[in-house]
Amino acid sequence: MLATLSVTVTVSWGLLYYAFPVLAPQIVSDTGWSAQFVTLAFSGSLVVSALLGVPVGKLIDRHGPRWVMALGSLLSAAALALVAASDNSIVFAAAWILAGFGMSGVLYQPAFAAITSWYGARSLGPLTTLTLVAGLSATVFAPLVAHVGAAVGWRGTYLWSAVALALVTAPAHWILLRHSRPQQHADHTARSLNERGYVSGVLRRGQFWLLTAGLTIASAAIHTVLIAMMALMLERGLTTSEAAWVLGLGGIGQVAGRVFYTAFARRASLTMRTGAAFAIVAVSAAAFAILSGPFAVLVGISMAAGVGRGIGTLLQATAVTDRWGPRAYGQLSGIIGTPTMLVTAMAPWIGVVLAGAFGSYAAAFGALAVIAGIATLLLIASARVQTRSPLAHVRWLCCKNREA
Q: C-alpha dihedral over 128, 368, 143, 149, to 10 degrees?
């Protein structure tokens, strides 16, 4: 099951997300639609995916991932086929809205919920495995999409992407995720508590909202850097192919960061891990703002940014279990994931707005470095706040329920 998710999440990220920044210039040139409209349509898919995060998390908590992820794959395939066939802007926008429904069931959030459900508090190793493989999605798919797009155009590329999702990820989810879930790794008292009461107890903690605010701001910086990187590289004078390689090779940094994090997590506190990871994000954004070349230097910065992005993904995946244990993971992570996915959807616009406000993408990356620094401080604060252990928190809720 872990191997299945490692493959399907990699393919889904590559075709549903990383293909777009590579193909967007072709779409604009071929259709005559404005870059703002094309970007807005894609952003709409991410907004829909974000808004569905909590209900999808609840479904996976209760029923497991099999039919949710299989349906997500089929909806994603249908959406990309519709993108390829769209002959007017209304159909194009509707296709991306449909893609948002599919994304909510096939990207990291549902896969993290499935793995945490299976492995409980011991999920770091499996999560690392998943993100190590999926971290290569940009490395594989950004150059591949650029090559295929040059040969068959953006419509042909999205049509083949739809075929791949329909024939690879949908059957894999349905056939290979059919096993029942193991028992939740929680004690008997925790299992007997009302789920809603447990979730509301966590939501009353200031630490939860510090964490949510920090991850939301960090996601805004990380994904704006990711989406705007192509534009920055073109501004620096690179060709489209060279810019795609700079973007894609950042995936190697993601993998390296996740390999490093597994060992680092055993030796460093949560505060130290959090500060180090997101400081890398801020420093790499600043380096992009200052340095304009040569090509090898830009690749190196992209890989460094990938290290921070890769560790940050794992920190977000384990944020709930690190603080409150695995109970109600799907719902709690869905609540955190809603604003983070919303700002991810806004990332293309944030880059354009900052570039317009400051006069260049280089200056925009300087502003993103500051934003990432603010997120780092908030996340360090969320890690330093003392919290009850999950068992102590459960006992406290039991007492409150008895009093009621």
A: 130
- Sequence-distant (≥ 6) Cβ neighbours of residue 57 within 8 angstroms: 109, 110, 113, 329, 330, 331, 332, 333, 334, 337
CB 130 within 8 A of CB 12: no
As a whole number of angstroms, the distance between CA 62 and CA 52 comes to 16
pLDDT tens, residue by residue, 88-136: 999 999 999 999 999 999 988 888 888 877 887 677 788 878 877 887 7
- Give the integer Cα–Cα distance in Å for 308 and 284: 9
Rounded to two decimals, the pTM is 0.69
Which two three-digit tokens encode residue 320?
A: 């709930």
Task: Dig out the tokens for 342 from the structure.
Answer: 């919303």
> Under a CB-based contact definition with an 8 Å cutoff, are residues 350 and 224 in contact?
yes
Torsion (CA) 311, 164, 158, 346 in degrees, nearest 10: -30
With CA atoms as reference, report the closest residue to 116 among 57, 174, 175: 57
From CA 117, how far away is CA 99, in angstroms rounded? Answer: 26
Q: What string of DSSP letters covers 274-286?
A: HHHHHHHHHHHHH
Three-class SS state of 397:
helix
- DSSP of 173-204, one letter per residue? HHHHT-SPPPPPSS-HHHHHS-HHHHHHHHHT
Q: Which residue has the tokens 């569905």?
A: 52
pLDDT tens per residue across span 32-76:
998 878 888 998 898 898 888 778 877 887 777 888 999 999 999
Residue 73's identity, in one-letter code, is: S
Q: Classify the C-alpha dihedral 194-195-198-201 as positive or negative.
A: negative
Q: Collapse the DSSP code of 244 into the 3-class scheme (helix H, G, I; strand E, B; otherwise coil) and give the result.
A: helix
Residue 82: count of CB within 10 angstroms of its CB? 18
Res. 329: pLDDT tops 80: no
Query: Which CA distances in Å does 207 have to 113, 175, 260?
Result: 21, 40, 27
